[in-house]
Amino acid sequence: MSTATASPLTDPLAGDGSAETGLGAALSTALDGAHHRRRVAGRAAFPADGMLRDPALGLAEARVWTLRRLGEFVAAGFGQSIVPVERATPETQLQSLIDFETITYGDQSVAIKSGVQHGLFGGAIAGLGTAAQHERFLTDALQLRILGCFAMTERGHGSDVASLETTISYDADAGEFVVHSPHESSAKTYIGNAAADGHLATVFGQLIVDGVNQGVHCILVPLRDADGATLPGVTIGDNGHKGGLLGVDNGWIRFDHVRVPRDMLLDRFGSVRADGSYSSTIDNPNRRFFSMLGALVRGRICIGGGAAIAARVALSIATRYGERRTQFRHPHSDEESPLLDYLAHQRKLLPAIARAYALGFAQNELIDDYGRVSSDAAHDPRDQRALETLAAGLKALNTEFANATIQTCREACGGAGYMSENRLTQLRADTDVFATFEGDNTVLLQLVAKGVLTDYRDVWGGLDRLGLVQASARLVGGAVIERTGAGLLAERLVATARRKGDATAFYDRGWHAWMFEERERHSVDSLARRLRAADRDSFEQVNAMQD
Amino acid sequence: MSTATASPLTDPLAGDGSAETGLGAALSTALDGAHHRRRVAGRAAFPADGMLRDPALGLAEARVWTLRRLGEFVAAGFGQSIVPVERATPETQLQSLIDFETITYGDQSVAIKSGVQHGLFGGAIAGLGTAAQHERFLTDALQLRILGCFAMTERGHGSDVASLETTISYDADAGEFVVHSPHESSAKTYIGNAAADGHLATVFGQLIVDGVNQGVHCILVPLRDADGATLPGVTIGDNGHKGGLLGVDNGWIRFDHVRVPRDMLLDRFGSVRADGSYSSTIDNPNRRFFSMLGALVRGRICIGGGAAIAARVALSIATRYGERRTQFRHPHSDEESPLLDYLAHQRKLLPAIARAYALGFAQNELIDDYGRVSSDAAHDPRDQRALETLAAGLKALNTEFANATIQTCREACGGAGYMSENRLTQLRADTDVFATFEGDNTVLLQLVAKGVLTDYRDVWGGLDRLGLVQASARLVGGAVIERTGAGLLAERLVATARRKGDATAFYDRGWHAWMFEERERHSVDSLARRLRAADRDSFEQVNAMQD
Ligand SMILES: Cc1cc2nc3c(=O)[nH]c(=O)nc-3n(C[C@H](O)[C@H](O)[C@H](O)COP(=O)(O)OP(=O)(O)OC[C@H]3O[C@@H](n4cnc5c(N)ncnc54)[C@H](O)[C@@H]3O)c2cc1C
Ligand SMILES: Cc1cc2nc3c(=O)[nH]c(=O)nc-3n(C[C@H](O)[C@H](O)[C@H](O)COP(=O)(O)OP(=O)(O)OC[C@H]3O[C@@H](n4cnc5c(N)ncnc54)[C@H](O)[C@@H]3O)c2cc1C
User: Fold this and answer.
1) Are strands B148-151 and B200-209 parallel, antiparallel or unpaired?
2) ipTM
3) Contact across the interface for A3 and B539, Cβ inside 8 Å
4) Per-10-residue mean pLDDT, chain B, length 547
5) pLDDT (tens digit, 9 = 90+) per residue, A358-413?
């Protein structure tokens, strides 16, 4: 199954540890950021080398292997930092993210299986449940005594979570909820842990109380009995072979009037009393919905961080290979040139390495923000929004970067890059879907735009403040408004460049940061103006902004 | 293994045939080009639907399935148009390319297995052998009575074929050749048909006659006996699991002083007489080497065409899905919006569709050129060079486009795009390596640059004709030369735009073509100037042009 002699790619990797001296060690410490020690401890406790799955394992074997590894991960003490809001500290919150990052150095199926079990299933209980529910379910979930699903996506609705079709209807006479999938399109699908292992699911659906739809809520629904047989009213199917993550058992679930007791509704944001009356601490249904989703932001942060790590692993493989692999004789010597001597090769890898560091540092800021905001019950709602915007944006950027970069690395290793034992194709296949789950990238970037515009409105007290610019701009239409904006930016740039000497400006990090901020300000300015100029109620015109 | 209910992606595909009316049919005919009938007949004789491999098949099963399908392909009369130069007509040459394109609509492992067996193994016999060898081996190869390998790449040398280490030494006393892999790095690797099925190989190595190295030649070497056991001196290993193309049994081969009779050397371009004297119709060893490689250009054309088809299949899947899949309610109606109503979604797919047509039309020109040039024994060497340059360039562009586009399509289908039954991840994994084999894309683009510069020198009678421009340019260095070039182009553009009214220019295809040519001329101009300005013997400076 494997080539008998060492592949040229595995040699450089074998030397991994020893190479980390001097500059390498310093860079690695810088990338670990404030949490260097925590990360070193994690990597030592769970070395990635023991975490590599034989890529030739079939679907069934890969699932068994993955579940066993997940058990070892938990036995080593990982994945236990998912705690309810009231017990959260910056430490617990950070640790939960770093645990996830630690395993993504190894097999991504194990990481995603933990993401489903600890982050999503455990996270929904911790983030959406109340004390009694934490008591009853959380430790069992984290310890893998109950394997569970996070059943949000339906066949008909993925990005548009608000339109889920599953109903959670309260039957006041019986004191029970009835969970139901009215149509074929209402079946939950792509749900991790559903096809084989899950016994309990956090199911999202429209909460109907006394005929009134209170919007999307989440309820715990048992799926299988102790022997693994599906319970009455529950139909489960296997999503089968996927483009990657073969170790995760994704499946679909359909509910036919499944009854669960009243205390199974995760009711931190909204609850139903025995008498059938609904109550919530958040009156506005829209705000309630977004608060629920906000409580789940950790998953998105993890996926972005995991993608960043996959990209760095790939870059490390390709760069070490590029240093050692030679091809074509140097014209004036008998030696062959290492690939990295070719500028075309440098151009493939070096800018990506620089970008990987930049994204890594940005991710470190994000996880610090998360630790701070999510452990502070009294946090400013604006901090929460900023956190969500940053998480959405960095998830999209990191995953897009990872997919492009791993592919570049694969090609930079030539034929060796295509051999599964050299990891690149596996990384590529597994990371692919990171662009889609925990929020499709396109939809996330729209979220970022909305978040940024909301801030803008807050600062400027409504877009109407732009009255003056608008008044003249409207006369000549969108394109000219844009040009005016660009003109303003150019003027500001020229003014600044004049104030600073060229030489200082080039090496001044503050100046670079300022220029970036300026660019952001300019983009938001012009987007806001275009939206204002357009009839904001018109789907066609808002849609036009996507172009 | 598969979802019990129809996936949203398979519905649109089921309606494939009926949708091809009106504009669709016209576009499809246009894309088929001059060979519409031939292609329709091919697709009818070998419908892609019956060609889809269960993605969950393991390595061993996938190989068995692929070999069986290859047998059906041959039984249906395909793959039989690989003929020796002397029997080639434009018809045979085109048919051999169209046969390959036909199967790439289905499973890529079958296509590549045929590519190895018919195109490479059969093609090497047809293109590098002489009449007696054609007689003895070609029909058996095409009919799958002998399964064979094309063993060029070695562990140490892939792109740099001229530096292969395998030796083919003539032993005049025995009247035999001795084929040997002197080092571990000399082992052939990634060789299709080697791990399981191949019985005979066309092996490339340095031909040593009477102590003199005559450069790379190709010899037939038996690998296995009738029972499939490797022959004495032959060691074969399995490359194992790959990033895709699981149905192709790639492996490595090492030769330990393996003896083969004198008549096994494929000696169209160079032969060894019984007395041990070497002779060739081409005196210059460098020209001889490139003539041999030129005789193998078909493979490169096939891979570009196969990638183009994979991209079109993906675009067809994603576009049909985008028309039917809805997500998010339209603000002013109760309907949800089809994905293709979002400009962001259009921007992902529509430019790629346009580009797919453009590349398809270019590929049609290329295959016509191939039919004409390769069937004309008396063709102008410049036509051959133009063909090779075009083949290299289009192979690189098509495969790069395919990889980027299939990924875009995968993401445009959201979670459904990641399910293997919907084909996109499989297409992506299989097509990935098209960027690497039959010539690594980066190296091919360097070939194109060299080809274009050689033409330039031919036309201008040596770069020295540029004396005047050079004289002034040298004073101020590379960057300024560039700017001057750009200035010239800009002037020409302005002059042309003035001559033509805006409105006419926009819709005038001749004008667009002229602009493209102008841009090409400008690029070559400046590259030639930069090379001339540099010390052309300096590796560092030529390397700098890659940046
Ligand atoms: C391997 C895997 C594991 C998963 N695990 C889970 C899980 O455990 N639990 C769970 O609940 N879900 C899970 N999911 C589902 C995942 O969260 C969804 O696939 C994701 O949210 C996208 O939804 P969708 O597939 O319906 O795509 P859609 O929402 O239909 O999107 C399809 C395409 O349309 C585009 N699009 C959509 N809306 C717009 C718009 N307004 N403007 C422009 N473009 C738009 C998107 O960019 C995308 O390209 C998983 C999915 C996969 C593939
Ligand atoms: C699935 C598969 C099937 C194959 N089947 C066959 C087969 O049947 N028969 C056969 O003979 N071979 C086969 N090959 C081998 C294939 O042809 C080689 O992999 C290919 O030629 C590239 O060679 P390499 O892998 O040695 O990469 P290298 O040549 O080492 O290239 C590695 C990287 O270095 C870069 N590079 C190299 N030189 C330069 C330069 N001068 N300037 C800038 N960059 C450079 C390349 O762009 C590439 O990114 C197969 C390969 C695969 C993966």
Assistant:
1) parallel
2) 0.92
3) no
4) 38 42 86 91 83 92 97 93 94 95 94 98 97 97 98 98 98 97 98 98 97 97 97 98 98 98 96 94 92 93 98 97 96 91 97 97 96 93 94 98 98 98 97 98 95 77 43 35 46 60 66 80 80 65 70
5) 999 999 999 999 999 999 989 999 999 999 999 999 999 999 999 999 999 999 99
Beta-carbon neighbour count of residue A139 at 10 Å? 13
Compare CB distances from B546 to A242, A344, A411 and report the shortest one's residue. Answer: A344
Which structure tokens are listed for B220?
């037939």
Q: Is residue A151 within 8 Å of residue A191, measured between CB atoms?
A: yes
How many residues are present in chain A? 547
Residue percentage of chain A with pLDDT more than 70: 85
φ/ψ bin of B249: left (φ > 0), alpha (ψ from -120 to 50), beta (otherwise):
beta
Count contacts between A and B (CB, < 8 Å).
212
List the residue whose alpha carbon is closest to atom 24 of ligand 1.
A158
Torsion of CA A424, A430, A432, A437, to 10 degrees: -160
- For residues B79 and B73, is the Cβ–Cβ distance under 8 A? yes
Q: How far is the CA of A367 from the centre of ligand 1 (A)?
A: 24
In short, whether A543's Cβ falls inside 6 Å of ligand 1 is no
List the CATH code of the domain at A296-460: 1.20.140.10
B326 Cβ below 6 A of ligand 1: no
- Closest CA of chain A from B342, distance in Å: 6
**Superfamily, domain B148-285:** Butyryl-CoA Dehydrogenase, subunit A, domain 2 (2.40.110.10)
CB contact under 8 A, B240 and A158: no
d(CA A216, CA A161): 8
The CB density around residue B180, as the number of other CB atoms within 10 Å, is 20
* Index of the ligand 1 atom closest to the CA of residue A192: 8
Domain boundaries, chain B: 148-285, 296-460, 462-544
A399: CA distance to ligand 1 center in Å? 14
Query: What DSSP string runs through B338-389?
Result: EGGGSHHHHHHHHHHHHHHHHHHHHHHHHHHHHHHHHT-TT--HHHHHHHHH
CB contact under 8 A, B3 and A237: yes
Name the DSSP class of A138: I
Q: What is B33-62 written as a DSSP string? A: GGGHHHHHHHHHHS-GGGGPPPTT--HHHH
Partners of residue A157 in chain B, C-beta under 8 Å: 327
CA dist., res. B350 & res. B358, Å (int): 13
For A256, which DSSP code? S
The separation between CA A144 and the C-alpha centre of its own chain, rounded to angstroms, equals 22
Q: Is there a contact between A240 and B3 if contact means CB atoms under 8 Å apart?
A: yes
Mean pLDDT of chain A, nearest integer = 87
**Per-residue pLDDT tens over the stretch A2-53:** 333 334 343 333 334 444 568 888 988 999 998 999 999 988 888 877 789 9
Where does residue B489 rank: exposed (0-12), middle (13-18), buried (19+ CB within 10 A)?
middle
Helix (H, G, I), strand (E, B) or coil at B207: strand
Using an 8 Å CB-CB cutoff, list chain A residues near B187.
Answer: 5
Q: Which CATH number fits domain A148-293: 1.10.443.10, 2.40.110.10, 2.30.300.10, 3.40.1080.10?
A: 2.40.110.10
CB contact under 8 A, B242 and A424: no
Predicted confidence band of residue A479 (pLDDT cuts 50, 70, 90):
very low
